[in-house]
# Entry
Amino acid sequence: MSDTTKTSLTPVAQKFILHWGEMGTKWGINRTVAQVHALLFLSPHPVPADEISSTLSVARSNVSTSLRELQGWGIVRLVHVLGDRRDHFETTKDVWEIFQTVSEERKRREIDPTLRVLAECVQELKAGAQGETYTRERLESMLDFLTIMTGLFEEILRMPVGALKGVGKLRGKVITLLGSEKKKAG
Amino acid sequence: MSDTTKTSLTPVAQKFILHWGEMGTKWGINRTVAQVHALLFLSPHPVPADEISSTLSVARSNVSTSLRELQGWGIVRLVHVLGDRRDHFETTKDVWEIFQTVSEERKRREIDPTLRVLAECVQELKAGAQGETYTRERLESMLDFLTIMTGLFEEILRMPVGALKGVGKLRGKVITLLGSEKKKAG
DNA sequence: CAGTATGTACAGAATATACTGCACGGACGG
DNA sequence: CCGTCCGTGCAGTATATTCTGTACATACTG
# Structure
C-alpha cells in the first residue's frame, strides 16, 4: 500500500503552515520543524513521513529529523494505522496542552540551567568577599525575578486542560484582585 | 579623553555574559546583542560603545548594530556623560520592567501578526463554504487560545512594577482560587 | 532467501546569519 | 580650516545552521 497520496494543501492550510514556520524561526525553532507541526496540527488523520515530505517538498530525511525533534518536545506521537507498515504521526490537538508541554520542556531545557548559573554566580560572589556588590545586586534581582516568575508560570501551567476558558471569563476581575491585594499588602 | 578604559571582566561577569548570550540564541536573539545587554546590565555606569567593543572583543561596528537593536527593543538608552563626547549606553535595571518591555514588543512584532493571519484564515474558510470543517475547527481553537492567552498576559504585564512580589506571596492561593472557580462554573 | 519497503545516520552542499574591516560623513577642537 | 574623534553603512568574509542525497540497517513479503 505505497499509496503515497500526493496530498496538496488548500490555500488556507498553506498560508497557516508557512506562517507557522516563520513564527517558529523567530522563537528559535527550525522552520521545517514548525511546518511539520503545523501540517500535523491541521491533519484529521495521522500522517506518514513520506507524505509530509512530498506535501511540504522537503527531503525525506529532513522530515525524519524534524519528527524526531517534535517527539523530543513531546507534542508528536508515532502511531500505526491498520494495513500500513509505515509509521504515522499525529500531534496533540488541544492547544492548551501543546502550550503546556512545550513550555514545560523549554523551562527544563533553558530556564532551569539559567537559574543554576545565576545561583552559582551569586554564590561565588558571596564567597569571594570582593567589592563586586553591584554585580551581586543585579544578579540577585535577576535570580529572584526568574524564580518567582517561573514558579507562577508553573502553577498556571498546572491548571487543568480547559481551565483557560474559566480564566478568560474571570480575567479582569482576577487581575484587579491581584492588583488591589498588592496595594493592601504594600 | 580617549581614556578607552580597557575594562576586563571578572570571572563571574564573564560567566553571566556568556550564558546570557547562549540563552539569547535559544530564543531567537543574536548572541552579541544578548551579550551587550548582559554587559550593560551588570555595569554600574553607562558604557561607551568602544569600551563594549574591547571588553567583549567584537568589532566596533557590530556593537553599534547591537546597540541599535537593543534600543529598538526599548531596553537600552543613549545617554551622555559630562566631559565625554562619546555616546554612552545604559539598560533598564529593573528586571520586571525589562521583561514587560520586551514582552510587549515581542507581542507586537510576533503574536499580533499571527493573530491577524489566523483571523484571516478563519475568515476565508467561512467565506468559501467548503468541506474544510476540520481545518477551521483547528484554526479557530488556536485563534481562541492565543486571544485569551495574550489578553491574560497583557493584563499581567500591565501590573505595576514591583507588584510581582505581591503576586509571589499570593500565588498558591490565587491559582487555587482560579481552579475552584472553574469547577463551580464548569 | 531474494526483493522491496521503510526508517535513520551522515557527509557534503546550500543557505542564512553574523561579524569584520574599512570607508565615509559629520562634528568637534584648536 | 586642518586634524582628530566618533558613529554608521556596507561589501565581503566567516561561521552556523539547515537541507539534501545517498548509503546503510532493519524488517516485512512472498
